[in-house]
Amino acid sequence: MAAPSTATFLSFRSQGNALPQTRPSAVRFGSRYSLVSFSGLKEVTSVNCETESSFIGKESSTALRGSFALKARKANRGSRSGLQLVASYKVAILGAAGGIGQPLALLIKMSPLVSALNLYDIANVKGVAADLSHCNTPSQVLDFTGASELGDCLKGANVVVIPAGVPRKPGMTRDDLFNINANIVMTLVEAVADNCPDAFIHIISNPVNSTVPIAAEVLKQKGVYNPKKLFGVTTLDVVRANTFVAQKKNLKLIDVDVPVIGGHAGITILPLLSKTKPTVRFTDEEVEQLTVRIQNAGTEVVEAKAGAGSATLSMAYAAARFVESSLRALDGDGDVYECSFVQSDLTNLPFFASRIKLGRNGVEALIPSDLIGLSEYEDKTLEALKPELKASIKKGIAFVQKQPVTA
Q1: How far apart, in Å, are the Cα atoms of 44 and each of 37, 61, 75, 109?
Q2: Do residues 3 and 59 touch, judged by C-beta distance below 8 A?
Q3: Which residues pair with residue 354 across a beta bridge?
Q4: DSSP class of residue 71?
Q5: For the chain, what are the domain ranges?
Q6: What region holds the Lactate/malate dehydrogenase C-terminal domain (predicted)?
Q7: Element (H or E) spanning 339, and its range?
Q8: Which residues contact 279 (CB under 8 A, 6 or more apart)?
Q9: Is the pLDDT score of 55 beyond 60?
Q10: Handedness of CA 138, 144, 148, 153 (dihedral sign)
Q11: Which of the following is catalytic: 264, 275, 321, 355?
Q12: Do domains 89-233 and 235-389 have the same CATH topology?
């Protein structure tokens, strides 16, 4: 089974001298090469995957290498100028002017799989779109401001990403966060249901343990709920787990993969250190220290920013990784795995974060093997997190059921 791992994002590299032109050129996003028209990059016709600077891991890139070699051969038979892969997916970001939305929009703008990037917010989004539109990547950037333009933003979207809401601030309780963000998510998902019900929906707005059930209830009331296409983005927990383990054990980061299950807040986050790849031994003390640090990493950033914000940059990076994985799956890559908070039957909870396989229709499969053969510590921690996660899920469902969704 291929499993994604963390790393840095896009790197442009021309072969030979950089020459302004409009013919297809090779561009790397993660370990995926595509041919797109970038001014200033010289055309090449080779495909080369380098996992050291990718969103995905070694095993996934091996599959990609074979896939793109095949595409290269087919494309070269029909084109004198070499590979021509046309970006074809529309991504909408709701909350694009915020602390997560802006860097996320930049990262998605860099993906050669995106042809249209629609940015929505209640204010200040026009400048973000104008700024991004100057980047010489192929996607067209459009801005949409306020409720009256939300529907137009969403029409035809393949992937909708929702980072909208307020960030967690020092002293803010989860109830405070919930009361503000629940209404925002409910309103936005109503619009998704009305305008692009078949889109992949990526929920970033916290508390994800409640906002994903909120989204599900809204979609159910609208009659368009597809559990395979609703995702709570928990990728940041995996990104942090991989980073912290690599630092602790002096491992090459690209090789490290730690599945993270449960939920996306505090003790509901459970990194499965016993399932770490490559196999590595941890003392009991290391397991507890790493688990607690991963669970509280968001607070670590909030406190370090001293009231000036929360984890915006790392969250944008993690969300971009999940968007890229979704786009790869939509594009036909059959070897895409991520952890996500989704409707699940792996436990007695209706929603649960675990590793999933992504395909063109969303969740192709839940991966139960990660939950088999857990350590004693992980077994106990899993049972301990369930009551809190269950309460958060019920809270989200109750919120929508008390407030009828508009037709």
Answers
A1: 11, 20, 13, 22
A2: yes
A3: 340
A4: H
A5: 89-233, 235-389
A6: 234-400
A7: strand 336-343
A8: none
A9: no
A10: positive
A11: 264
A12: no
Q: How many Å apart are CA 178 and CA 386, to the nearest integer? A: 19
Conformational region of residue 266, where left means phi above 0, alpha means psi within -120 to 50, and beta covers everything else: left
Q: Amino acid identity of 27?
A: V
Mean pLDDT (whole number) for 252-263:
96
Element (H, E) at 34: strand 32-36
Q: What is the C-alpha separation between 341 and 91, in angstroms, rounded?
A: 20
Give 163-182 pLDDT, tens digit per residue. 999 876 667 776 787 888 99
User: Which residues are within 8 A (CB) of 85 and not within 5 positions of it... i.e. 6 or more apart?
Assistant: 34, 35, 36, 71, 75, 112
CATH number attached to the domain at 89-233: 3.40.50.720
Could you confirm whether domain 235-389 is CATH 3.90.110.10?
yes
The CA distance from 399 to 182, in Å, is 8
The reply to whether 134 belongs to the active site is no
**Largest separation between any pair of C-alpha atoms in the chain:** 63
Q: What percent of the chain has pLDDT over 70?
A: 77
The residue among 194, 159, 120 whose CA lies nearest residue 405 is: 194
Distance in angstroms (rounded) separating the CA atoms of residues 336 and 317? 18
With vertex at residue 403, the alpha carbon angle to CA 150 and CA 341, rounded to the nearest 5 degrees, is 70
Q: Tell me the pTM.
A: 0.82
Give long-range contacts, CB 8 A cutoff, 24+ apart: 43-47: 43/81, 43/82, 44/14, 44/15, 44/82, 45/72, 45/76, 45/82, 45/83, 46/15, 46/72, 47/71, 47/72, 47/83
| CA distance linking residue 326 with residue 302, whole number of Å | 29
